[in-house]
Amino acid sequence: MVTQIEIKGFDEFVKYTETIDDNGPPVLFYFSGSKLPDGNSWCPDCVVAEPMVKAFVSELNKNIIFVYVSVGDREYWKDRACPFRTDSRLKLMVIPTIIKWKGVQRLEGSQCGQRDLLQMLFEDDD
Predict the structure, then answer these.
(1) Whether residue 112 lies in the annotated active site
(2) Name one GO molecular function term (predicted).
(3) Residue 29 belongs to what domain range?
(4) Does residue 37 have a cis peptide bond before it, meaning omega lies within 30 degrees of 0?
């Protein structure tokens, strides 16, 4: 039931958002630092949150689209002009961040690794 998609970078994110069907299933974006050769993100908070997020999403029995977005390397992310920070739809302050598209709900930083908060975010439509 959960469709998982991985995209890399801001341009791919923008292209993907242009294809979202407003009448389709809810779309949630998970923003994380890009992966290092060892398979983990350079972002320590993302490394902590990701196993919880992945486990939670894998247990969901809902029709949603879960999009993993790699925001790039540390230097790119830390730049104040990073488009993930400046885009009016996102205004990301920290990673990891999970955003419900076309909604105001979001989890930021350590909140992403808290099962009760994930449950509230993902079940909000029920």
Answers:
(1) no
(2) protein-disulfide reductase [NAD(P)H] activity
(3) 2-122
(4) no
Among 27, 28, 29, 43, which one carries the catalytic annotation? 43
Please provide the average confidence, as pLDDT, over all residues in the chain: 91
According to the model, what pLDDT value does residue 80 have?
92
Task: State phi, psi for 91 to the nearest 5 degrees.
Answer: 45, 50
Within 10 angstroms of residue 107's Cβ, the number of other Cβ atoms is 23
**Active-site residue identified among 27, 46, 65, 71:** 46
> For residue 14, which of 67, 54, 77 has the smallest C-alpha distance?
67
Query: For 67-93, how does the pLDDT look when each residue is reduced to its tens digit (9 = 90+)?
Result: 999 999 999 999 999 999 999 989 999
71: domain CATH number is 3.40.30.10
